[in-house]
Write a structure and sequence with these properties.
homotrimer, alpha+beta, 60s Ribosomal Protein L30, Chain: A
């Protein structure tokens, strides 16, 4: 797997892996599945995308917010197993969009995460997914995603 | 396993497996677990149940909407592994109901999916489950479910 | 593992495992993963914490509600495998908070569940987690959590 070199060729630098916002850990490995904690739009202590899509954020802001979540998730993967090259498959992405009531475009927002995983992991980045709009997220983050990853033992 | 014949005896024809609504895939198999993408109430390009329970939909509409989601999920299972007969167990169903604020009857809605799995898969259809009300779903679908299935390798 | 004795030393008595509120089962075991059904704040037929955080409940009520959910989840684990001592790891906790729109403090609420798992299971209780605010939960429960657990085969 050459995920690290693909990431480098994209000229993307991952942020530091986010610190948990409560009494939990960033990841748990069970068998060869890595369960990541939900990631939000916080990078280096700054919340990059805050507020609801349809209010403080438009679709483009939501998409960009989801991409930040995916970068945070990738940072946790690297911290957990040492290198993105050990990723066999992004298995499942659960996407939660902080949005105005009746919001119908969660898929377009969560594509910001999915596109990032596709760019970095190629075929191994093709994942199953949910996308729902919720009424609130931690620290008013615009997006939260939760990811399950299959890694080399 | 005789799930296909049980389905036939119910006189139910599954729809075509739904196409992804974003940059993801309908299923990922890891070990003998099949992770399905979230399914909504879209069949053959038509959204069968749209709008919130408690507004555009009543409980019966919500129940029927959840049944459609389950049929879509079953269609993905068949596409993924070739036959419903390879299903060992429906493991987990996460049910999201597009509902008015304060909606308390998500379990009755998601029973529409659970009852379908019980009818088709018998004991293998008995699953763990969550049911929550959310403020919005893709394309204003009334229900979305996400399913994890154990299949024969 | 000495989780049962740790629980006893905390002077905590688990409630009876909750009965399903619909056509599902409290748990499914696949390999050595136990998938629990979502648990709410119902104990012995009484809903202990009802209504939204930010309205009927304050943060302390939400935290206490999440603790009740965790106790219900632990009761299911014991019912499923016979003893908490078979828990190798609490893998993932998905926390849903019934909250007013725009609620940003789901992590503080779901800590009520996480702290309980940490107290009872020690290092084995350290889990990955999500925490989101939703617009409604079954029977107006203040919190619902869904838990995946790794157990000794």
């Amino acid at each position: 797997m050459n995920h690290e070199s693909r990431l480098a060729s994209l000229d993307v630098t991952l942020p530091d892996a986010p610190k948990p916002a409560g009494n939990y850990v960033p990841w748990v490995k069970s068998g060869n599945l890595l369960y990541l904690a939900g990631t939000i739009c916080m990078v280096d202590g700054n919340m990059l995308y805050q507020g609801k899509v349809g209010e403080a954020q438009d679709l483009e802001g939501g998409y960009a917010a989801a991409r930040v979540c995916a970068m945070n998730s990738a940072a946790i993967i690297r911290e957990a197993v040492g290198s993105l090259d050990y990723v066999r498959r992004i298995v499942l992405v659960q996407g939660f969009v902080n949005a105005v009531p009746g919001f119908t475009k969660s898929p377009q927002v969560i594509n910001g995460a999915s596109d990032f995983f596709a760019e970095v992991f190629g075929d191994a980045g093709k994942h199953a997914r949910t996308a729902v709009a919720v009424s609130g997220l931690p620290l008013d983050s615009t997006v939260e995603i939760q990811v399950i990853v299959e890694v080399d033992a």
